[in-house]
Write a structure and sequence with these properties.
This protein has 153 residues and is of the alpha+beta class. The protein has a single domain, classed as 3-Layer(aba) Sandwich (Carbamate kinase). Helices cover 44% and strands 20% of the residues. Strand 3 and strand 4 form a beta hairpin. The protein is elongated and about 65 Å long. The relative contact order is 0.13.
């Protein structure tokens, strides 16, 4: 028991220093499919319960690649950016929408005998990032691919 109390005493300055702070957490698309994802969610809920405001930004490349493959489409890239034509955009919308709902569902659980029991974590999502089209670069039309114009915070 003494070790637990000692650990808590040493952790309390960090808890106090970060209460009411905002953490931006980047979760790659691979993280959602990883067997440890449940523990990651519990860690995020723990941070929230310690008074940290969380902004979760998730990737989706593996999920998009899987949707493209299941539709028989080959992804195209130029300068490490995906060229998002209309059929690719449909796969992106499908993959990202499914992923968003899956993440929100995991963050909204409140199961008995779970680290999330009674957590009162509320999830808000929306279009906080506005993009502008990249256009044509080196003679390559990026179609619907964009770059960040503005982030509402």
């Amino acid at each position: 028991m003494h070790d637990h109390v000692n650990w808590l005493r040493h952790a309390s300055p960090y808890i106090n220093a970060h209460r009411d702070c905002t953490f931006v957490v980047m979760l790659p698309g691979e993280g959602v499919d990883h067997p440890n994802f449940g523990n990651i969610v519990h860690d995020l809920v723990l941070l929230h319960s310690l008074g940290v405001r969380l902004v979760l930004v998730h990737g989706s490349r593996p999920q998009i690649e899987a949707r493209l493959a299941s539709n028989g489409l080959t992804p195209r890239y130029h300068r490490s950016l995906r060229i998002t034509d209309s059929p690719t955009l449909e796969c992106v919308i499908d993959a990202v929408g499914h992923l968003r709902i899956a993440i929100e569902a995991r963050l909204s659980m409140d199961m008995a005998r779970s680290p999330m029991q009674g957590s009162r974590l509320r999830v808000t999502s929306g279009n906080f990032v506005t993009a502008r089209p990249i256009g044509v670069v080196d003679g390559v039309d990026y179609h619907h691919t964009g770059e960040v114009r503005r982030i509402d915070r």
